[in-house]
Amino acid sequence: MEQFKIKIFIKPHSNKNEFFGYDDEKGAFLFKIKAPAFDGKANQELLKYLKSLKVNAVILQGFKSHFKILLVDKTEQAVSLFVP
User: Fold this and answer.
1) Quick check: pTM over 0.90?
2) Which domain holds residue 32?
């Protein structure tokens, strides 16, 4: 399967999991994640949330940062979310 990379910014410890689209200022896609940024919980919650959106991804860089690089399987759902 084809894959592509995206840069994201997550805000952990939010009220709910939510995708906000692309932020030109940050140069990244924005996500709010309920889990705290502690012991990898926000990363796990992010991947779980992406799966609920039918997007399969892995974190390549940024395990301890708000900015992350994801490797995403190129599916119809992923393209509709991340490709303009």
Assistant:
1) yes
2) 3-82
Residue 83 has pLDDT above 90, yes or no: no
**pLDDT confidence bin for 84, thresholds 50/70/90:** confident
Q: What is the Cα 54 distance to its own chain's centre? A: 12
Q: Tell me, what CATH number does 43's domain have?
A: 3.30.1200.10
- Cα–Cα distances (Å) from 81 to 26, 28, 37, 41, in that order, read 17, 13, 24, 23
DSSP annotation of 63 reads T
Give the residue-averaged pLDDT of 24-39.
96
Q: Which residue from 77, 70, 79 is spatially nearest to 8, judged by alpha carbons? A: 70
